[in-house]
Design goal:
- The N and C termini lie far apart (81 Å).
- This protein folds into 2 domains: 309 residues, Metallo-dependent phosphatases (Purple Acid Phosphatase, chain A, domain 2); 203 residues, no CATH class.
- The strands form 2 sheets. The protein has a 7-stranded mixed beta sheet.
- It is an alpha/beta fold.
- The radius of gyration is 27 Å and the shape is globular.
- β1, α2 and β2 form a beta-alpha-beta unit.
Amino acid sequence: MKKFVSLLLCISMLFSFASLTAFAKEESVDLSIAVASDLHYVEPREEIEGVIEDELYFYANRRAAMEDESGFIIDAFLKDCAEDDSVQYVLIPGDIVNDGRIILQQHIDAAAKLRAFEKATGKPVFVIPGNHDYGAGENDIKFDDFKELYADFGYDKALTVEENNCSYTANLGDKYRLIALDSNDPTKSTEDGMNAQKMDWVRRQAKQAEKDGRYPVLMMHHNLLDHLPVQRLLSRNFIVKFHYSTADLFANWGIKAVFTGHEHCGDVSVYTSTLGNKIYDFANTALTMYPIEFRKISFTDEEITYKTETIRKIDTDALTSVVGGYTDEHIRLMNEDFNSYALGFLKAGVKYRLLRSLKMEQMGIEESNPFYNLVNTAVTGLKDILEMPLYGENSVSELAAEYNIELPASNYKNGWDLATHLVSEHYAGGEKYPLTSVEVTMLLRIVNLILKDVLSTVNDEVFIKAANELIAKNDADGITKSIVKTLSNTFGAVKPGTYFLVALVSPLLYEFAYDSDEVDDRNGVIEGYNSSDYNPMDNVIAKISDFFATLSLYFSFFIEIVAKIFKF
């Protein structure tokens, strides 16, 4: 009996020790924050109105932003932060409202929500403006107005506030200091406003944090690192100028974690400085746009742990009491899974935006322009291929077969379905499609088809239009198309010239579809500011390794193309 009692006591002590260990680990967290960016609050309309041809998402817009639902999504986010005892602070890296340059009421409404949250929870909110939040025009809301409107959200707790912009610093807990950097240029719509004065201010604040025994955490609207392949070229207004040089300086000034928005994607990128210091740019999705997500991050000396939270429910009763026009189907789908509903909304909006951008008048090409027919032919061919079903009769697969191109089997309906899916994956982060995946294979082969079919059609239009008109009377294909199809079936799917074009495009498409930096975009653990495992030389080696891995990827594309051209 005594042995049995002793055994129970041992088991009890083990459980007690485990509980104490878990509690101690939880208590060791020095800082816990929630980060949501690009709230883009808009006052809801009295009734939703259709602008696109879509049975369900007829009220979607070109930005694919859920404007009428935005206030209720923000409410759901703040409710989550209020109910989570681990969240100590809330950070918002800009674009709090959508039309904040000119519509004061949006700021008033958004600030009221944040103020009510702070009052109810006692949890401080820290904001910094985005490019939608103030401007420099004659009738614009200025940066001084922004600081007054959001005085309760960082500026009231600030250690320093810049006079000529909205930057400030404030303490977060006992060990960290927030450097809230206004990265905007108020005279431009999206471009960053980084300059030598702002850089020097960051340097001084980071050094002061170090002197005060605190770790510097930076928040700004524009991205610090690439979250797209060669983002500085493809999406230059969304990333700071001289971003590698800036990242190098920030990292060497002791900044490890940076929280940004603007690109509307959930992506984490890492950069290793020349001195071997790592810096991580946590880009955040737009809260009111698919994937309707935000981050929670906890800090210890040794580790920074981050996870992605998804909003799957909003108060639809409150929504419909303010906004009319929703059908029973809308509300049913929202209540089932708001995130899935937002995905459909995004796809409809992205398609609408791309189709809109492909209109001749949108491109600024009038019928009197000598290139009108040429461009119109190319655009029409592109849209036709994207609209066609991928499989079955009169499909992309049938058209591809005419050029000896075989499409892999998949569940995608058409080119738009694939394209909008990949865009949604970019926004959500964690792009997971390797080179051998169905998605990348399909994407590259459709690009190949578009290059062949659309370009051959354009050649028909430009070079031998008159001859084609004669042949068309006999119900024959265009001359160039016939030649290209014959060559494709005789010598293979791709000609040397097309190989070259595909070689140029492929790495960009591949990098868009597959995030290869080995940093988890959604949930992960990275080294803390004072990690005992930190070794600068390891970081230098990792940087060199990453460089050669990227070089190897691009070289493999080149070798494959050359081999096919010369038939090795």
